[in-house]
């Protein structure tokens, strides 16, 4: 900006407009400013040639630059956060998750980072969790992150404060009945308790989520009615005596909570509904390698791909919205989510007609489409879709036995090419002699039912191949 003033005769406002044009990468404005800058240098007696040379330096520099105080601040914060992540990763990521607890897209990214670093994020727990995300010690001695209870849908910070106050004053809750007996009755809102159950808040007390959902309303009704009577003074000095009919009137009915639970898919669906994220597990966990072999890149990698490029990516359908165009045609918009990122996908009427029946929330799909970067966040304009059924249990492995003396570069090249031509789910184990066994990387997993076995027997010999 100072160069623009002194050499090209700009005033402060004009110099700031130059900064904005370069900083925002507005090529049309930059071209106009170049002409103005060169003419200004010429008028100031420095010459247009020097003006163009100066501008050649200013333009790329201004694409991403700071003044010194700004750069120092960023550098200092970067050092602090890098230090914390390296030396106190659990506490650091817990604080990071707390800072974005209302921004689910960013929270999903940091949750994926926890998984990649081997840090377990626990579902909310009425005996462990605080209002925000915190670092906790697991029974096995490892450190983990407890999900903040205030981040649970329908559970506000005020109600969490009441639960924590009781827990801190009188110790952990022994069971669900003890919880209902002790917490402030304002907490015993059926909608709140249902949300905590679905999120896993009472798992550590030994209940199945399905069983507790069946009986929590009756238990709450019994407890609130009894506590109201106590508050109204209906239990006088002699009420501690044993009633002739037994103790049930005092303690309330004890229901037998069924132990059977929801299937994994339903349990995770409730978890996502209450927390906005998959925490204890993820529908794609264990299927990442399989999905990656069927796609061209991850969702995160789309950010580095050129506008208009065609790519196939895979993930989970979330936030599906079906809409009608002005012409009355059906289209859809949804978020495609993998373990580390998400992207908005647009399905226009033509594609919707051919593939719309495959779309539903929580479906795992492979989407082929055009990358659109006209907005701040890249989008994908779908042209093709297919359903993908994750295979998390794997497929029977393929064993190939080779004598070490038979190894040669042509043989290995041929083997590598053949395996890559038959991508699938079966792990490949290479036996070199009797004792050495190598498990090949996931990139070489194969589909055995595509004629691969016959081709392998031709390449390495009939007795060297063992599989299906």
Secondary-structure blueprint of this entry?
Layout: H1 2-8, H2 12-23, H3 27-43, H4 48-62, H5 68-87, H6 89-99, H7 104-116, E1 121-122, E2 134-137, E3 143-146, H8 157-170, H9 176-182, H10 190-199, H11 209-231, H12 248-251, H13 264-275, H14 288-293, E4 310-324, E5 330-337, E6 342-347, H15 349-355, E7 364-372, E8 379-387, E9 395-402, H16 409-420, E10 423-432, E11 436-439, H17 452-460, E12 465-466
Parallel strand pairs: 1-3, 6-8, 9-10
Antiparallel strand pairs: 2-3, 4-5, 4-7, 5-6, 7-8, 9-12, 10-11
Describe the structure concisely.
This protein has 468 residues and is an alpha+beta fold. The chain has helices spanning 2-8, 12-23, 27-43, 48-62, 68-87, 89-99, 104-116, 157-170, 176-182, 190-199, 209-231, 248-251, 264-275, 288-293, 349-355, 409-420, 452-460; strands spanning 121-122, 134-137, 143-146, 310-324, 330-337, 342-347, 364-372, 379-387, 395-402, 423-432, 436-439, 465-466. It folds into four domains: 2-62, no CATH class; 91-265 and 271-275, no CATH class; 288-387, OB fold (Dihydrolipoamide Acetyltransferase, E2P) (Beta Barrel); 395-466, no CATH class.
């Amino acid at each position: 900006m100072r160069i623009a003033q002194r050499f090209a005769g700009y005033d402060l406002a004009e110099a700031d407009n130059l900064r904005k044009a370069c900083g925002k990468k507005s090529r049309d404005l930059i071209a106009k400013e170049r002409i103005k800058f060169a003419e200004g240098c010429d008028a100031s007696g420095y010459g247009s040639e020097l003006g163009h040379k100066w501008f050649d330096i200013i333009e790329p520099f201004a694409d991403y630059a700071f003044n010194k105080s700004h750069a120092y601040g960023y550098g200092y914060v970067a050092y602090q956060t890098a230090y914390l992540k390296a030396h106190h990763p659990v506490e650091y990521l817990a604080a990071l998750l707390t800072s974005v607890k209302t921004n689910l897209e960013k929270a999903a990214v940091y949750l994926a980072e926890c998984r990649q670093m081997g840090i377990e994020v626990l579902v909310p727990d009425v005996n462990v969790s605080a209002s925000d995300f915190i670092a906790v010690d697991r029974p096995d001695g490892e450190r983990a992150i407890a999900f903040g209870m205030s981040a649970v849908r329908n559970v506000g910070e005020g109600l969490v404060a009441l639960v924590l106050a009781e827990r801190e004053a009188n110790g952990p809750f022994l069971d669900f009945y003890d919880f209902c007996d002790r917490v402030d009755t304002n907490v015993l809102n059926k909608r709140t308790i249902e949300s905590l159950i679905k999120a896993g808040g009472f798992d550590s007390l030994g209940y199945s989520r399905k069983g507790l959902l069946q009986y929590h309303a009756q238990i709450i009704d019994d407890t609130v009615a009894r506590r109201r009577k106590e508050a109204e003074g209906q239990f006088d000095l002699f009420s501690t005596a044993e009633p002739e009919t037994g103790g049930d009137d005092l303690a309330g009915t004890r229901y037998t909570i069924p132990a059977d639970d929801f299937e994994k898919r339903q349990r995770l669906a409730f978890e996502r509904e209450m927390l906005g994220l998959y925490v204890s597990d993820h529908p794609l966990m264990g299927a990442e390698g399989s999905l990656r072999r069927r796609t061209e890149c991850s969702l995160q990698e789309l950010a580095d791909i050129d506008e208009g490029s065609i790519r196939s990516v895979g993930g989970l359908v979330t936030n599906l919205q079906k809409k009608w165009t002005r012409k009355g045609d059906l289209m859809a918009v949804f978020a495609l989510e993998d373990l580390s990122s998400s992207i908005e996908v647009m399905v226009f009427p033509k594609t919707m007609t051919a593939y719309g029946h495959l779309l539903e929330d929580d479906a795992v799909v492979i989407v082929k489409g055009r990358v659109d970067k006209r907005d701040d966040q890249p989008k994908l304009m779908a042209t093709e879709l297919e359903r993908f059924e994750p295979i998390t249990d794997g497929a029977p492995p393929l064993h190939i036995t080779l004598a070490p003396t038979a190894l040669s570069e042509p043989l290995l090249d041929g083997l590598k090419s053949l395996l890559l031509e038959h991508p699938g789910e079966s792990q490949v184990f290479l036996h070199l002699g009797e004792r050495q066994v190598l498990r090949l990387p996931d990139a070489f997993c194969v589909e055995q039912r595509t004629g691969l076995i016959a081709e392998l027997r031709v390449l390495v010999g009939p007795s060297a191949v063992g599989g299906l």
